[in-house]
Each structure stands twice: as C-alpha cells, then as structure tokens.
C-alpha cells in the first residue's frame, strides 16, 4: 500500500510472528510497508512484494520511520540498538530482551534520543482484556483481591531460545500489571523441565502486587488442552476473561438475607447473576499496529512502553531465580517502574 505522506515502515524477521506482522503492515492505513529483513530469505512468500534484505543496515538505508522487530529474542537488543542509533522508532516483539540489562540498554537508547518505542505485548489489545481493564478502572469490581491466570497448550516448535517463562508467562505478567495498574512486589515459583530441552516447560508462580493483591500464574506448553484463562476476583464479584474467544463474563456476589444470627456476622459471598458482555472483536495485532502508528505520529496511544517491557523481564527473571533458589524474590526497589506509569 502506498499513501501520500504515509509513514515508511520496515520489518525485521519473517518467522511465524513476523509473517503476521507483514500481513498487517501491508494493509495498514497511513503506512507504507517498504522492506523486510531476514537472512534466510522469504521462505513462506510473506513479504507482500517488498524487498527482502539481509541486514538491518540495508533496511535503515531505505529510509524508514519505524521498524517492527520480530526476530528471535536473543537478537532484540542488537537490532534495537542499531535502529535507535539510526533514529528509527521501533515496535519490538515481547519479551523486549532476554536479560534485564539488555532491556535497560534499549530503554536508554530510545529514551535518550526521544524516539517512540514499544513492546508487542499483544494481550493488551485483546478485546476481552481491554474491556476488563476499562471496567476495573471504573471501579466496577471494588477492591481487587486476586488475579489468576492459566495459559497452557501444546509445545510451540517455533521457540528455541527461551523457556516457557520468557515466551509465555511474560504475557501474563504484563497483562496482570496492565489491567490492575499495579506492579509486582514479590514472586515465588516452581518450574518443571520435561521435554529434554535446557529450558523450563512449566511454571507455577504465586505473587503479590504492591497493593496486596494476590496473583497466581500457571503456564505450560506440555498440555493438549489449549487454555487462556484470566480471572480477577474482588469486592463485588469476579471477572473471567478468555483471550482465545475474546469473551468477558462477570459473576456478581449475591446479597442473600439471612435470619440466622451466627451467619449474619460472617461476611461471605454466594452465587449471584452472571453477565456475558457483548464486545466488538477486532484483531488484536491490527489494534496493536494502529496504536503504535498513532504513537509514532505523536497522537495519544496506549502502547506498552520499553520501560514497562523491561519491568516484565525483571519479573520473569525473578520467577526463574525463585525456582532455581527455591525462595521468594522481592521486587520492591526504587528504580523499578510501575505498569501503571
């Protein structure tokens, strides 16, 4: 697509996620998709007619306003720093980097140059979670007590460089901080490695946010059952989101009067009404691209910043440290940035 005055955009990586980015970029209003980088070439014919280049420098030389970085996680820092040095904005796939130090270097590189940069935590663009966040911000649940996530399914053969914590649990870490507007205060976890690879295949984590909210995450890629479950329990009931179907339901607490004096003093809950919300279901990846495009144009846009992406990596690293050391890890330090900021 070519539009007068359009932003010129490039793509680094034509793997399984990169191919989806190429499809969206090729049809994105206000954007001209001008080139893709992949040393392996375009094996799947996904480049939509744009030149397929061998190096990031060749893409920079084409003159791009921003680039989407969808190469393996271990290369994010190197590619991101090259783009920042050239004055190119970047949308970097999650996790932003494979180390906290690498994430911090990316933050400094883009912030010091005043460049727009974001992280592709796509769950933020899921219709169910966007609706959930809006409702929590409006106080519909009252005080929040607990967030529970379950993310499981078959092994993704596209992944070779990280384990289930950095690949999948980072989704749940980010979305938990994003929907609640809070940050993690502590985390404790156990991991299991069963596939014969060097990385973990399953993690169970329990944590606490800085307002006391309890968090539970169960993540694995060893299950034939595919599940994407998020529940937020609070003062007035429980929200349940399914990001596979983009459904959001609310189970309310029922006010049941009782004349039994012993029970009158017990503040429990009983089953009340259930509401399933009608939500417009746009493709999350398209929403993510539209938000980032608007951010590059200087418009208000709710993107995942590099600092927020760095915070998610910090929590993910703490999960792995906890599992290795069989101890709880505190995440309260002055230089950690809240998801809500």
From TrEMBL:
InterPro entries: Gfo/Idh/MocA-like_OxRdtase_N (IPR000683), Gfo/Idh/MocA_Oxidoreductases (IPR051450), GFO_IDH_MocA-like_dom (IPR055170), NAD(P)-bd_dom_sf (IPR036291). Residues 8-121 form the Gfo/Idh/MocA-like oxidoreductase N-terminal domain. Pfam families: GFO_IDH_MocA (PF01408), GFO_IDH_MocA_C3 (PF22725). It comes from the Bacteria. Residues 130-239 form the GFO/IDH/MocA-like oxidoreductase domain. PANTHER family: BILIVERDIN REDUCTASE A (PTHR43377:SF1). This is Gfo/Idh/MocA family oxidoreductase. It comes from Streptomyces thermoalcalitolerans.
């Amino acid at each position: 697509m070519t539009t007068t005055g359009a932003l010129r955009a490039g793509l680094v990586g034509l793997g399984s996620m990169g191919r989806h980015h190429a499809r969206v970029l090729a049809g994105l209003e206000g954007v001209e998709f001008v080139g893709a980088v992949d040393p392996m070439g375009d094996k799947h014919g996904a480049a939509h007619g744009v030149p397929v280049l061998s190096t990031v420098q060749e893409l920079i030389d084409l003159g791009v306003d921003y680039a989407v970085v969808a190469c393996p996680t271990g290369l994010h820092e190197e590619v991101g720093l090259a783009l920042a040095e050239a004055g190119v904005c970047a949308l970097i796939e999650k996790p932003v980097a494979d180390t906290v130090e690498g994430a911090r270097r990316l933050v400094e590189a883009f912030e010091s140059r005043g460049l727009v940069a974001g992280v592709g935590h796509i769950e933020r663009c899921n219709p169910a979670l966007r609706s959930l966040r809006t409702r929590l911000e409006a106080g519909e649940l009252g005080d929040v007590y607990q967030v529970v996530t379950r993310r499981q399914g078959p092994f993704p053969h596209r992944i070779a460089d990280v384990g289930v914590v950095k690949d999948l649990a980072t989704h749940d870490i980010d979305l938990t901080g994003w929907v609640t507007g809070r940050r993690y205060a502590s985390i404790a976890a156990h991991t299991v490695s069963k596939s014969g690879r060097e990385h973990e295949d399953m993690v169970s984590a329990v944590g606490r946010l800085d307002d006391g909210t309890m968090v539970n995450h169960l993540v694995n890629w060893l299950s034939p059952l595919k599940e994407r479950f998020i529940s937020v329990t609070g003062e007035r009931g429980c929200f349940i989101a399914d990001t596979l179907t983009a459904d959001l339901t609310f189970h309310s607490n029922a006010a049941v009067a009782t004349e039994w004096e012993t029970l009158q003093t017990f503040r429990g809950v009983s089953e009340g009404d259930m509401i399933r919300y009608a939500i417009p279901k746009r493709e999350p990846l398209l929403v993510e691209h539209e938000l980032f495009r608007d951010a590059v144009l200087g418009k208000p846009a709710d993107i995942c910043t590099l600092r927020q992406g760095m915070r998610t990596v910090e929590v993910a690293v703490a999960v792995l440290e906890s599992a290795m050391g069989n101890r709880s890890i505190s995440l309260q330090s002055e230089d950690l940035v809240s998801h809500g900021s």
